[in-house]
Amino acid sequence: xxxxxxxxxxxxFLTGMRAIDAELLGRxxxxxxxxxxxxxxxxVPDGPAxxxxxxxxxxxxxxxxxxxVDVIPIGAGARADDxxxxxRIAAAGLVYLSGGKPGFLLDTLRETPAWAAILAVYAGGGxxxxxxxxxxxxxxxxxxxxxxxxxxxxxxxxxxxxxxxxPHYDALPGLLRGLxxxxxxxxxxxVGIDEETALVQVDVGWQVQGRAGIExxxxxxxxxxxxxxxxTL
Length: 233
Known about the structure:
This protein has helices spanning 18-26, 48-64, 83-90, 102-109, 113-123, 133-138, 174-183; strands at 4-8, 35-39, 68-71, 94-97, 127-131, 139-143, 153-155, 160-166, 189-193, 197-202, 205-210, 213-218, 221-226, 230-231. By secondary structure, it is an alpha/beta fold. The chain has a single domain (4-231), classed as Rossmann fold. Helix 2 links the parallel strand 2 (35-39) and strand 3 (68-71). The chain starts with a strand and ends with a strand.
């Protein structure tokens, strides 16, 4: 049994994502109160106040949807190599990786008991959500913070093989979007996800959900998909 992945362009814990998150919670409720692990690790480089803000937003958002919430600030008080942290993650039916710095999130989680616990939640039928930096880290690669052309990439966590995620896609200027797509390796499928929009794993592929849409760059072609449409990655 495997679970559900959801890649979100932006808007974690905000009103615009309530319907999507409620549907995801429905996948794990199984007649009881769903239990959520919120991991705001990507925000750690932005400082304790930012981590605390995301933690409070996540707690309030999912509690309002009827879930119990465990905020696990890995990298800011909790350690990815701590077996107790892995146990807290494993107890969740949904794990939410919120936004910030994708490289920090990747370096913190890679090859740790915490990451193994996230994979186990998914393998057991749970839901893994990555928003913004969280979505980027779940792909096969992410853009490396290095000046130069073509753009450099680095291996990511690999839950979505062959894919590089660009969040906040509709907020990027058109010229910048075009340059990014031309500068990224052709062997990668680039998935641009608009703000307050999610790409959710379903039985027949992936479904676009939310306010706007997504764009795929694959085999030299760019194809746009709107909310409700099914996408094959």
